[in-house]
């Protein structure tokens, strides 16, 4: 990853500084052997704070603009445009200065009203509590208690609703409403207080019945950090540290779940995702001081402002304007998420660190990542100069942000900033989100931020990887997309895939970016790209088993049943393999239909079944094999971060049409089976030769007739499952599609409003 973008002010500053250094002085810098010495040398040349006029900026908070957004929100609310009102209230909330607590309480209460009408009851309840915590006016408190009661009614929590209606009565004593209006509200509350006990009694009976018939227990979820048993890390002089397995991994095995040591959002997602956990946010919690970031909850806001954000707050606009890359921001956050004292306490421990020590450390321990590869021996003096100058900019932010309590630690931590910039270049990962224009769009995996994962960073590259990764928030999940035999390397992919990019291009890219020449199987055997694979040749495994690894390249139209291996002499039953491949065709079609229908779990099972069969029979590269892998990846991405930009309004109709389609399919199958039963098929099996007999037992002719009834039984079972799923989905779709429409519309409105300058 690059150090900076060319459209920022840092590039010009870097060029100016470089031109101001003479040959002898630069040669002195080039001879330095430690990051701390390099930092001291460049930091002493000029004051970057003075040169770049660095200072904290809090331009986003503006009471006048906040009130404008509030008025716009109120007008939209009066027109019952709840989504538009919510968007304006969000912007008002973000722009309200910390000192205007009363105004903040009012806007949170207003936002809770919009959320209530959008049936986002949990979020409305949170905003109600936030308004109360910000000292919402006592004479208006009846509004919040009554709204709270209505939210609990919407959630069908009648016990809490009853208590809130009771709380509304004393709250009305403090209101300044006309007597008639007040009496009406009291009557409404009294009616609910009388009615709700009956509902509560009925709910208690239902709860008792459910307790007597508990639902089947679900499989326990994986912990936040998880490494599959059998995965370990080896070392060689050529490969460095790399992941291996001492057990067979099946396709779709989760082998790693990991939270990042550090993660940072891109600027363009700083107001759509939580700065701490990367969840997409529609109801933001703001920073009290700046309007540059948002959070999904008070917990994430407190975590940020008690660590990294207290030092970064006010500097993000400068940082973004500088053109600094996301790895630069990550290098800074690796420091700001800890304290000066923390790093000074580690100063004597870095030299003696070994993998035996670091493997036992928690992911948030800086020592865990300190020894990751930096390729310092391959760096040029010019590269060191640019990165060291960037380290001085990052250090200036630390200094101005109040990170340092003493000057003595500045050179040491400045050296760590430079070290971070180097290790992140080769070990950071892009965090992604699957984004769709609409719910039928295939979607695109979109870069939203960067993360450093200490365990994942140890995985080596392959142009034909055995795993794929996706993200939940900022946590990474790694799953297998093929069978991986015990004793094999477990490799991920750093970017170029052999199915899409030629070997020359892949090797050049990897050499330039990661300083190695790739010798994975796809490169060493020079596998063809996907579009260049020959579909008329099948690559079968030899039945010789472990004693023979030869590949039998068989023309698709072969007439022979048994093929002899030229290396081990064993005969391989090709017809058996062809029958298996015939089954995989049906599995692929079924999996594709399930994926397109949104049944990703079911589709994944079909793809896994297909991959298991292909792993037994074929040897890649082969089109069907890689199409199946892509199907596995597509399903897995659906379990991670995902976002639909706009939901079509006819989604409910599409579900109805799909139910009708399944009904027609079953009716046609019933008719087909009935027609089959009317006809007697007689085959004189005794006249068949032994070889023909073998062929028919392996082929579709006889078995297809017998199998037809079995297929029908399975179809009916699938139909029942599918129709049950669709029925449940259809019941929920109105609420779901409405929520997605709200979020999509909210996103559009906010983007439009945010394009206007704050001040």
Task: Kindly describe this structure.
By secondary structure, the chain is an alpha+beta fold. The strands form 6 sheets. A 4-stranded antiparallel β-sheet has the order 1-4-11-10, with helices on one face. A 4-stranded mixed β-sheet has the order 5-9-8-16. Strands 2-3 form a two-stranded antiparallel ribbon. It has 28 helices and 16 strands. It is flat. Helix 5 (63-78) packs antiparallel against helix 6 (82-95), helix 9 packs antiparallel against helix 10 and helix 26 runs antiparallel to helix 28. 35% of the residues are buried. Among the domains are: 1-50 and 260-431, no CATH class; 63-207, Tetratricopeptide repeat domain (Serine Threonine Protein Phosphatase 5, Tetratricopeptide repeat); 646-759.
Relevant terms:
single chain; 16 strands; alpha+beta; 10% strand; 759 residues; four-stranded antiparallel sheet; Serine Threonine Protein Phosphatase 5, Tetratricopeptide repeat; flat; four-stranded mixed sheet
């Amino acid at each position: 990853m690059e150090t900076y973008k060319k459209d920022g002010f840092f590039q010009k500053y870097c060029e100016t500084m470089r031109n101001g250094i003479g040959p002898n002085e630069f040669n002195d810098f080039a001879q330095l052997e430690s990051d701390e010495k390099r930092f001291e040398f460049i930091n002493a040349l000029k004051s970057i704070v003075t040169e770049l006029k660095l200072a904290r900026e809090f331009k986003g908070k503006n009471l006048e603009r906040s009130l404008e957004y509030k008025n716009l929100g109120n007008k939209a609310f009066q027109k019952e445009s709840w989504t538009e009102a919510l968007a304006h209230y969000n912007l008002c909330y973000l722009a309200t200065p910390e000192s205007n607590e009363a105004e903040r309480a009012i806007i949170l209460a207003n936002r809770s009203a919009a959320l209530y009408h959008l049936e986002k009851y949990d979020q409305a309840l949170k905003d109600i509590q936030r308004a109360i915590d910000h000292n919402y006016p006592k004479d208006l408190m009846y509004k919040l208690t009554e709204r709270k009661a209505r939210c609990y009614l919407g959630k069908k929590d009648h016990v809490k609703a009853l208590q809130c209606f009771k709380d509304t009565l004393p709250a009305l004593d403090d209101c300044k409403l006309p007597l008639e209006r007040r009496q009406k509200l009291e009557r409404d509350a009294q009616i609910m207080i009388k009615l709700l006990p009956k509902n509560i009694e009925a709910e208690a009976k239902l709860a008792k019945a459910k307790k007597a018939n508990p639902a089947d227990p679900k499989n326990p979820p994986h912990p936040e950090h998880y490494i599959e048993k059998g995965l370990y890390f080896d070392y060689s002089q050529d490969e460095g540290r790399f992941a291996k397995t001492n057990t067979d991994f099946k396709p779709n095995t989760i082998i790693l779940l990991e939270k990042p040591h550090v993660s940072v959002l891109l600027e363009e997602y700083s107001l759509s995702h939580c700065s701490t956990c990367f969840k997409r946010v529609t109801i933001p919690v703001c920073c009290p001081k700046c309007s540059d970031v948002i959070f999904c909850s008070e917990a994430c806001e407190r975590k940020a402002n008690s660590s990294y954000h207290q030092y970064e707050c006010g500097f993000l606009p400068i940082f973004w304007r500088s053109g600094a890359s996301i790895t630069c921001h990550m290098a800074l956050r690796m420091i700001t998420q800890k304290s000066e004292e923390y790093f000074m306490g580690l100063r004597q421990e870095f030299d003696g660190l070994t993998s035996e020590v670091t493997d036992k450390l928690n992911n948030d321990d800086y020592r865990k990542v300190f020894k990751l590869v930096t390729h310092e021996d391959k760096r040029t003096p010019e590269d060191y100069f640019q990165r060291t100058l960037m380290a001085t900019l990052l250090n200036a932010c630390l200094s101005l942000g109040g990170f340092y309590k003493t000057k003595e630690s500045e050179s040491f931590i400045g050296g760590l900033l430079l070290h971070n910039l180097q290790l992140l270049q080769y070990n950071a990962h892009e965090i992604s989100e699957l984004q769709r224009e609409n719910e039928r769009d295939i979607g695109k995996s979109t870069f939203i931020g960067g993360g450093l994962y200490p365990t994942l960073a140890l995985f080596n590259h392959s142009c034909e990887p055995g795993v794929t990764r996706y993200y939940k928030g900022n946590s990474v999940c790694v799953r297998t997309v093929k069978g991986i035999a015990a004793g094999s390397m477990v490799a991920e992919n750093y970017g170029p895939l052999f199915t899409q990019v030629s070997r020359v291009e892949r090797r050049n890219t990897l050499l330039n970016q990661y300083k190695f020449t790739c010798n994975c199987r796809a490169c060493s055997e020079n596998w063809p790209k996907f579009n260049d694979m020959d579909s008329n040749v099948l690559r079968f495994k030899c039945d010789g088993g472990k004693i023979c690894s030869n590949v039998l390249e068989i023309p698709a139209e072969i007439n022979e049943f048994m093929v002899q291996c030229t290396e081990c002499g064993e005969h391989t039953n090709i017809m058996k393999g062809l029958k298996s491949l015939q089954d995989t065709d049906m599995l692929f079609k079924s999996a594709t239909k399930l994926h397109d229908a949104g049944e990703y779990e079911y589709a994944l099972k079909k793809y896994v079944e297909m991959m298991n069969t292909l792993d037994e029979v074929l040897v890649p590269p082969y089109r069907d094999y890689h199409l199946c892998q892509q199907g596995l990846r597509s399903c897995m991405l659906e379990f991670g971060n995902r976002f639909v930009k706009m939901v079509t309004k006819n989604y409910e109709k599409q579900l109805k049409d799909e139910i009708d389609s399944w009904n027609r399919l079953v009716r046609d199958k019933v008719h087909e089976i009935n027609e089959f039963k009317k006809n007697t098929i007689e085959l004189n099996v005794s006249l068949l030769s032994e070889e023909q007999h073998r062929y028919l037992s392996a082929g579709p002719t006889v078995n297809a007739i017998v199998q037809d009834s079995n297929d029908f039984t399975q179809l009916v079972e699938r139909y029942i499952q599918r129709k049950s799923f669709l029925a449940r989905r259809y019941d929920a779709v109105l609420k779901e599609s409405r929520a997605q429409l709200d979020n999509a519309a909210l996103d559009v409105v906010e983007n439009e409003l945010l394009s206007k300058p704050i001040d």
